[in-house]
Structure to design on (361 residues):
């Protein structure tokens, strides 16, 4: 089959999309990824291990909300035009914003897959949520199959669409982490790894650099709040712990070799962060890295159930200070690692990705 994938980032690479495309390609299908290069910084066309990548360089600022609506509309128009000129057997739409073209393209003999990477109704603005829910239902209705990552997504789905669903959570591939032995270092290393989108929780890491000199802190990755975090750090003379962009396939193993504690404390006022479990959380398990989470979400339930990390309250930053005052390479820390080692095999992408065979037969 000829497969087109649509997503609204620059694929640099998007790890989940890459893993899916890699599996589909290995099954003998051709795969082309159509993506939005908002910074106009990548090649417009390239191949990555046999995966064709076609980028549409349309300038916009990631995370700027409605300010990017005209750029988004231009990207959607380009995608629709390209698909009409290049028919395929199946279109795999990633996320709700990537699936909007499905509303304007006649299916003919094509199949549509809607891949829901996360929740789209976050409970912050009821008017926006109302519009998003309507769009979500329309896209779900039109899809032949729906991929979901958490049972919470059924809350925003009509009953007749549930039968279309396939469960493919954000587990990492153990193949990417062929070696998980930590590199030696004199301090305990605490890192946030991923998109820097939550100023409130990541500010806590920056603030900790002055109080806790016996730890090393890092924020690895870009994101919509990266510039604000960098500005805050510079204006208040904090140590620079923001390391910037990394390659989620090539660099990720080395990053975890230099991470002793994984910081996954997200602001649970956002329903998506509260109800979801991030791929980084699962990477912590695969790499035997104890995890620090915020109280009140699904990740806290996992940490407590399996004894694989620590719980703080980001609304009370002193809870993080108290944790650091009491933690070290102690029996508690070692126990967390041992607990992770007992469950790491449960969360391997390579054990579950075969569910895609139900689509790509």
């Amino acid at each position: 089959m000829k497969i087109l994938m649509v997503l609204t980032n620059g694929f640099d690479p998007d790890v989940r999309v890459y893993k899916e495309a890699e599996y589909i390609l290995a099954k003998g299908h051709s795969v082309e990824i159509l993506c939005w290069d908002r910074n106009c910084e990548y090649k417009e066309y390239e191949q990555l291990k046999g995966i064709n990548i076609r980028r549409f360089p349309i300038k916009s600022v990631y995370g700027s909300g409605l300010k990017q609506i005209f750029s988004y509309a231009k990207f959607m128009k380009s995608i629709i035009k390209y698909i009409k000129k290049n028919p395929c057997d199946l279109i795999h739409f990633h996320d709700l914003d990537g699936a909007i073209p499905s509303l304007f393209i006649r299916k003919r003999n094509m199949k549509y897959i809607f891949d829901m990477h996360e929740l789209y109704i976050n409970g912050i603005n009821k008017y926006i949520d109302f519009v998003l829910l309507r769009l979500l239902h329309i896209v779900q209705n039109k899809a032949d199959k729906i991929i979901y990552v958490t049972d919470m997504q059924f809350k925003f789905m009509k009953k007749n669409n549930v039968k279309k669903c396939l469960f493919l959570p954000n587990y990492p591939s153990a193949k990417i982490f062929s070696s998980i032995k930590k590199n030696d270092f004199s301090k305990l290393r605490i890192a946030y790894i991923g998109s820097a989108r939550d100023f409130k929780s990541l500010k806590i890491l920056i603030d900790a650099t002055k109080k806790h000199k016996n730890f090393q802190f890092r924020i690895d990755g870009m994101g919509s709040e990266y510039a604000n975090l960098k500005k805050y750090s510079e204006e208040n003379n904090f140590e620079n712990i923001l390391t910037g962009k990394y390659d989620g396939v090539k660099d990720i193993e080395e990053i975890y070799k230099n991470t002793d504690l994984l910081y996954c404390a997200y602001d649970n006022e956002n329903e998506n962060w509260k109800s979801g479990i991030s791929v980084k959380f699962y990477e912590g398990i695969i790499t035997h890295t104890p995890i620090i989470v915020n109280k009140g979400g699904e990740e806290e339930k996992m940490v407590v159930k399996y004894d694989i990390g620590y719980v703080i309250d980001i609304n009370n930053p002193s809870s993080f200070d108290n944790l650091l005052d009491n933690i070290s390479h102690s029996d508690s820390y070692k126990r967390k690692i041992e607990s992770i080692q007992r469950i790491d095999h449960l969360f391997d992408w390579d054990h579950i990705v075969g569910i895609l065979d139900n689509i790509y037969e």
Summary: The mean pLDDT is 93.
